[in-house]
Amino acid sequence: MALRVSCGRYRLSASLLPLHAMHHDLLARLGLSLPIIQGPMTGSDTPQLAAAVSAAGGLGFLGCGKATQDRVLFRWQIELPPKQRLPAFAPYTTYCLYVYYFYYVAASHGLLPTKPNSVIDLEYFYHTPFAQIFCSSDRLHRKMAPFVLGQDQSFVEGDKLKAELDALAEAKDTDPAALPKVDSLIHQLWMKHWQRPPSRNRPVSDEERERIGEGLKPILEAIQKQFKSESSPERFPKPPG
User: Fold this and answer.
1) Are 38 and 46 in contact, with CB atoms under 8 Å apart?
2) What is the dihedral sign for C-alpha 223, 34, 194, 203?
3) Which of 13, 78, 115, 225 lies in the 20 to 30 Å Cα band around 238?
């Protein structure tokens, strides 16, 4: 079930997950009580909006554009030795650079394909730090995945997953309560990433809907306040001097 909320030029979308799904490993590791991730909107979001989302139990983000350059450079220059700066201050950037240079070094030695859209295909890996399972039928993805994904992540062939989902959908046409077979890929992925077999979803109760709605109120209030304000506050204080 999906919940979509609009307020002027802002839109908030969230999936209302079954209670058992709300407590899977990712939410636990992030310390979230609501399955809500606020997308960063450079130039439109504010620290107050990100803070309101986080305070409500979701994951708030603050888009970083040109305005943050002076502050980032100031911290970069004084807080860590040169060799530790990039991984400490920009771990995601470090990862993207690793993917980028890995591809070009390997491609220059003829180990990876160099078709015209390879650079676009490469950028799919930029999303993998935020995922547990990466599914693709692309040859470049298949060859790079073992060197890019972590041990707690999985690469799945797109055709194989599609075939298994088709089989499961066909089984549910006969028996709506059907679950993936124990020896299926879907079952194996559940066991690896959630340490339990797939289970039947139950409806979201009225009490749970009300609790989630209460959690959304601070987020909506922050959006409305930001939308009505005539000018955005300074996103980051300028460095001294």
Assistant:
1) no
2) negative
3) 225
**Extended strands (E) in 120-179:** 133-136, 154-157
Q: Which two tokens stand for residue 44?
A: 């439109």
- Per-residue model confidence as pLDDT tens digits over 209-237: 888 888 888 888 887 777 666 455 454 44
Q: What is the C-alpha to C-alpha distance for residues 231 and 228, in angstroms, rounded to an integer?
A: 9
Q: Of 44, 35, 51, nearest to 3 (Cα)?
A: 35
Q: Which residues contact 38 (CB under 8 A, 6 or more apart)?
A: 12, 45, 49, 50, 53, 58, 59, 60, 61, 219
CA dihedral 61→64→65→66, nearest 10 degrees, is 150
Amino acid at 188: Q
Tokens of 27: 């939410």
Q: Alpha helix (H) ranges present in 33-157?
A: 47-55, 69-78, 82-89, 91-108, 118-122, 139-148
Question: Dihedrals φ, ψ of 107, to 5°?
Answer: -65, -35
